[in-house]
Design a protein that fits this description.
This protein is of the alpha+beta class and about 375 residues long. The chain contains ten helices and 18 strands. The strands form three sheets. Strands 1, 2, 3, 4, 5, 6, 9 and 15 form an eight-stranded mixed β-sheet that branches. Strands 8-10-11-12-13-7-14 form a seven-stranded mixed β-sheet. The two termini are about 30 Å apart. About 40% of the residues are buried. It binds coenzyme A (COA).
Length: about 375
């Protein structure tokens, strides 16, 4: 008899970890909760969903709500991860049911959107997700010069979370994190921290490569000035002596332009698969952001089954919330589209696409 989707009770929590370790991390020497210390945590148990068959866990997904600050709005985002169904129970709709439950939890907790990382695009499209946002990936295959008279470098992980948090806080788009969360993230297995220091002993920047079973040879988190990061990557290219990738949000324009001079490949991809979970709340935040920059005729309304989007008199009717994802978060180019008049496109471009980014440590 199948039971669920339901939130695991405290006794079932350990069984959930056993199930996930068995299915997703069969060959690793650590438990999966060490990789996702804030999502797979007893304190987040109410955001887990399972299906149980005769005392056996057979399907699971977890939601981790994140508060993400950005220049014009503060998002609440539901990151979804560790989606898995036991081989013997697949194609019976269990993941669909569990994911719908995760989306309900996201709605109940006022998440504006849900996000996840996957290559099963069509599977998630059926659940209302669409590819969106931007991720710029730069590949470095050769050694790069770096400045060593002005800075010191280290691979030592023993860096205070306070110093990292101070640099991290300078990001324009970032999840709000406590220092305890930094401490937990630093303890993730297979994480290499690289740091660059000013000669007076203050931290100038950091870069983090690897995250448990994922993201090896990917620098998925970093912080510091363009000069600090460029030099730190030069140091990494020497000590690693192996090609690596650096991922960055599209809005890090100056950094990307500088690093492009040294990168062997540059690729523009998507941030993830995104689904709107609170249309009214998100529309209100975006309309307010437009008013704050002096654009008061921005229209973003649900009208029975369709959505009206544009500026006064130049409106586009959208049938599905999914079609909003590229308009809101990209990829979109308002200069070359032929939907809106040039003056409307000009106004929309003031804020859209909205900068959105989830740093590697927050992905689930
Ligand atoms: C991907 C995965 C989670 C799907 O789990 P699942 O429980 O089989 O998923 P569902 O049964 O809900 O959906 C699977 C298919 O069955 C179909 N389906 C949905 N409801 C159904 C039902 N009641 N009866 C029969 N089939 C159904 C779905 O439409 C889907 O079809 P699609 O593959 O063409 O999109 C599972 O294959 C898995 O654990 N894979 C390994 C881990 C993994 O890749 N996780 C995803 C990481 S993002």
């Amino acid at each position: 008899m199948l039971e669920g989707p339901k939130v695991p009770n405290e006794k079932e929590y350990e069984k959930v970890l056993e199930f996930l370790n068995h299915k997703l991390r069969p060959e690793h020497g650590w438990s999966i909760d060490k990789e996702y210390p804030t999502a797979l945590n007893l304190a987040n148990r109410h955001n887990m969903n399972i299906v149980v068959s005769d005392d056996r866990i057979v399907s699971h997904a977890v939601l981790k709500p994140l508060i993400v600050k950005s220049p014009h709005l503060i998002y609440k985002i539901g990151a979804i991860g560790s989606v898995v169904t036991d081989e013997d129970y697949r194609n019976q709709g269990l993941s669909h049911k569990i994911l719908n439950e995760s989306l309900n939890l996201a709605k109940q907790q006022n998440c504006d959107v849900a996000i996840l990382w996957t290559n099963l695009y069509d599977f998630y499209r059926k659940l209302g997700f669409e590819l969106g946002g931007y991720e710029i990936s730069l590949t470095f295959e050769r050694q790069m010069a770096y400045e060593y008279t002005q800075y010191k470098y280290s691979k030592d992980k023993n860096v205070s979370p306070e110093a990292l948090a101070k640099i991290y806080s300078q990001h324009s788009v970032a999840t709000i994190r406590s220092q305890d969360e930094f401490r937990k993230f630093l303890a993730i297995p297979n994480t290499q921290l690289y740091t660059i220091w000013n000669l007076n002993g203050t931290l100038a920047g950091y870069a983090i490569e690897g995250k448990g079973a994922d993201l090896s040879n990917y620098i998925h988190e970093w912080g510091g000035s363009v000069t600090a990061i460029k030099n730190l990557l030069g140091y990494i290219s020497h000590v690693k002596n192996h090609p690596f990738n650096f991922i960055a949000p599209k809005h890090s324009v100056n950094l990307i332009n500088e690093l492009k001079k040294y990168a062997d490949f540059v690729n523009e991809g998507y941030l993830g698969m995104i689904r709107i979970t609170n249309f009214e709340g998100l529309a209100m935040k975006i309309k307010k952001a437009f008013r704050n920059v002096g654009i008061s005729d921005f229209v973003f309304e649900k009208n029975q089954d369709s959505i009206l989007f544009g500026c006064n008199g130049d409106l586009y009717t959208i049938e599905s919330e999914k079609d909003l994802i590229p308009l809101l978060f990209g990829p979109v180019d308002f200069d070359t589209q032929d939907i809106f008049k040039p003056e409307t496109a000009q106004k929309l471009k003031t804020l859209l696409p909205l900068p959105l980014w989830i740093w590697g440590w927050d992905s689930v």
